[in-house]
Amino acid sequence: MNLFLIPKYGMIGAAWATQITYPPLVLLYLWLIARRFCIDLLDFFKIMFKIGTIGLLTYFIFKLFPGSLVSHDVIRLFLGLPLGAGVYFSIAFKLDLIKKTDFSTLVNWRSNG
């Protein structure tokens, strides 16, 4: 794909070639890993969807506080990370998006290696 897009479009062609070829490559790697470690891809995608949903909710909650609670960047880094993680997991368990079975599934995937 690079052979066709880069000569005609330059850097933009390279960017598009990357955008077009990476998703199938990621899916191929995911399939190979799932086959190697006996992972059910449907369960995997369900858990990833839950994690993404919680991440978006956490993002929008923090966007409600535009000035942030702390103005200094270093302090914001050290307070924001634990605070964000706390909000993230609070939402996850409150909305029942992450269950104990999800954690056991992840542990079992790791132990199958």
Helical percentage? over 70%
Q: First CA to last CA: what distance?
A: 35 Å
Mean pLDDT, to the nearest integer, reads 79
Protein structure class: mainly alpha
- Spell out the helices and strands N to C: HHHHH
SS strand fraction? under 5%
The total count of helices amounts to 5
| Coarse morphology | flat
Largest sheet: number of strands, sense, barrel closure? none
Question: Could you explain how this protein is built, in words?
Answer:
This protein is 81% helix and 0% strand. The protein folds into two domains: 1-37; 38-113, no CATH class. It is mostly helical and 113 residues long. The two termini are 35 Å apart. It is flat and about 50 Å long. Helix 1 runs antiparallel to helix 2 (11-37).
Explain the layout of strands and helices.
Layout: H1 2-9, H2 11-37, H3 41-63, H4 73-94, H5 100-111
Helix pairs in contact: 1-2, 3-4
Structure, briefly:
81% of the residues lie in helices and 0% in strands.
Main traits of this protein?
single chain, 113 residues, mainly alpha
